[in-house]
Amino acid sequence: MSAIQENTLTKTENQSAALIEIQNLKKYFPIKQGILKKTVGNVKAVDDVTFSIRKGETFGLVGESGSGKSTLGRTMLRLHEPTAGKVIFEGQDLLPLSAPELRKIRREMQIIFQDPFGSLNPRFTIGEVIGEMFKVHNIASGKEKDEKVCQLLELVGIDPNRRHFYPHEFSGGQRQRVGIARAIALNPKFILADEAVSALDVSVQAQVINLLKELQEKLDLTYLFIAHGLNVVRYISNRVGVMYLGSLVEVAETDELFNHPAHPYTQALISTNPIPNPYKRNTQIILKGEIPSPANPPSGCKFHTRCPLATERCKVEIPPLKEVAPGHQAACHFPL
Ligand code: ADP
Ligand code: MG
Predict the structure, then answer these.
(1) How far apart are the CA of 247 and the centre of ligand 2, in A?
(2) Looking at domain 15-32+39-108+188-330, does it have CATH number 3.40.190.10?
(3) Any idea which ligand is nearest the CA of 194?
(4) SS3 22
(5) Cα 325 to Cα 240, 247, 251, 260, 261, distances in angstroms
(6) Which residue's CA lies nearest to atom 27 of ligand 1?
(7) pLDDT below 50 — which residues of the chain?
(8) What is the per-residue pLDDT across 57-67, written as a single tens digit (0 to 9) for each?
(9) Which of 68, 69, 213, 230 could disulfide-link to 45, CB 3.0 to 4.6 Å?
(10) What are the tens digits of pLDDT across the range 141-195?
(11) CA atoms of 53 and 56, how far apart (whole Å)
(12) Distance in angstroms (rounded) separating the CA atoms of residues 318 and 332
């Protein structure tokens, strides 16, 4: 076999290889009370989550506000110390790493935040904000740094001549482009986009998402794309995971998840999503009651208090995330 053939083979095999594996990850926030700040309980923001993100894919994460999406993303990057579990990035467990080792790996894992304005220092020009990335990591300075900044701005569709402008002189969509330029500056392999387009107008959302898609191709990026809006997640993701009260309740390829949701929660979530086509009617499944507190989640299946199909078994037995169709997993005793 020639070297070229061998190379192609490894490339194909690697396409489905995991870039990040999350195993039984938990993040509990202690609830403290009284002057002695005694721990009286825990907010179980992420509660035993296991899944993996493949190289080159966009993994979308959806779920109601407070379901633990951001905490999961941040704990994966060790921006929160996990309570338990493993995060394996390119075969390496991140949790035992020392601070300097972690710093090196952090270059490979970047974040794009929700609020582009809030995440850009208003007293620095956008050129300075992006250039800072090269300075901090001793990659380039002076003229070389300036050239790199210009290249990045061009890549995200902003005129490099505007690098001396301040964040407030840009529109929301342009600021998010600057946020993206900063995130890709160090050539990362993985980007966590946490509600990255949620604050933007729908038409601007589409432009920024298309930019993210384009950059993914060009730069071989892998994304974890968090959003509460199902339509954007459906558009950008290869696979989607659904969270409810700190648990991952369903994972599938995007079309499979939207066309054949197996978990009653996913079905309800999709049924209440406004669909762009007004002629296509769908029946809304209105869930009863409020989302329970993650400090005191229901026993058994956490969704049983709101589930239209719950039985006695659901009140006592935790359903594991298991395969219901090839590549499609759901945590339900009675998948649809
Ligand atoms: P989502 O991103 O899905 O809206 P979050 O991950 O932000 O959800 O929050 C999950 C739960 O964890 C919520 O109940 C939230 O109040 C709680 N939480 C998040 N961050 C913290 C924190 N730093 N300290 C205490 N509780 C937190
Ligand atoms: Mg969030």
Answers:
(1) 14
(2) no
(3) 2
(4) strand
(5) 15, 20, 11, 10, 11
(6) 29
(7) 1-15
(8) 999 999 999 99
(9) 68
(10) 889 999 999 999 999 999 999 999 999 999 999 999 999 999 999 999 999 999 9
(11) 9
(12) 8
Closest ligand 1 atom to 243 CA = 3
Q: Identify the nearest ligand to the CA of 65 by its number.
A: 1
8 A C-beta contact, residue 226 and residue 71: no
3-state helix, strand, coil in the chain (%, to 5): 35, 25, 40
Q: 179: CA distance to ligand 1 center in Å?
A: 23
Q: Which atom of ligand 1 is nearest to the CA of 80?
A: 23
Ligand 1 center from residue 97 Cα (angstroms): 25
> What are 167's two structure tokens?
């964040």
Ligand 2 centroid from CA 99, angstroms = 26
Which amino acid makes up residue 152? L
The pair of structure tokens assigned to 22 is: 């999350």
Q: How far apart are the first and last CA of the chain?
A: 47
SS (H, E, C) 156-192: CCCCHHHHHCCHHHCCHHHHHHHHHHHHHCCCCCEEE
pLDDT value at residue 9: 44
CA distance 303 to 54: 28
